[in-house]
Design a protein that fits this description.
Layout: H1 6-17, E1 34-36, E2 39-45, E3 57-63, E4 67-68, E5 72-74, E6 78-84, E7 86-91, E8 94-99, E9 103-106, E10 112-116, E11 123-129, H2 131-137, E12 142-144, E13 149-150
Antiparallel strand pairs: 1-2, 2-3, 3-11, 4-13, 5-12, 6-9, 6-11, 7-8, 7-10
């Protein structure tokens, strides 16, 4: 039986790491929504959807009319694009007002929550986050302080 050298093994592993084995397309009908302490979300770029990016993930978030996501923080950076709606984020001690077409940034290790100001319509966000890279590096952590629920009276 012939043993591989370290070099041969390294070259094989390196080549395998360059071969993407996930999906290249996620159809709208295949998006899986779930409810968590964050609220209603769908991981669209994640191993659970089959679009398995190694350095970033994407999540669709729907915040019901007059509701808010759970207060939380995580070790990874995130940015959100507001697809629909109007609301604000509480990021640390700052309030960041947003509306459809805006982007906002959530720094790592800072408490934040998303709040929908509209009492009649849901808000929808598309978030790009770096959790896959942080998981790979062994330094990902999400800390949930409060669950999602009804928002305070919006101003």
């Amino acid at each position: 039986m012939e043993h591989k050298t370290f070099y041969q093994s390294l070259m094989e592993r390196q080549a395998e790491s360059r071969q993407y084995k996930g999906k290249l397309l996620l159809k709208k009908k295949d998006i899986q929504w779930h409810v968590s302490p964050q609220g209603k979300n769908a991981a669209v770029v994640d191993t659970t959807s089959g679009l398995s990016a190694k350095t970033f993930g994407m999540v669709l978030t729907e915040i019901p009319a007059g509701a808010q996501s759970g207060l939380h923080k995580h070790t990874f950076e995130a940015v959100a694009y507001v697809l629909e709606g109007e609301g604000y984020d509480l990021i640390g001690d700052e309030r960041i007002d947003w509306e459809a077409g805006d982007f906002f940034y959530m720094p790592p290790n800072v408490n934040h929550r998303h709040v929908n100001k509209d009492p009649a319509k849901p808000a929808r966000l598309l978030q790009v986050e770096a959790w896959p890279l942080m998981i790979y590096l062994g330094i990902s952590e999400l800390v949930q302080q409060e669950g999602a629920g009804k928002a305070p009276i919006a101003k």
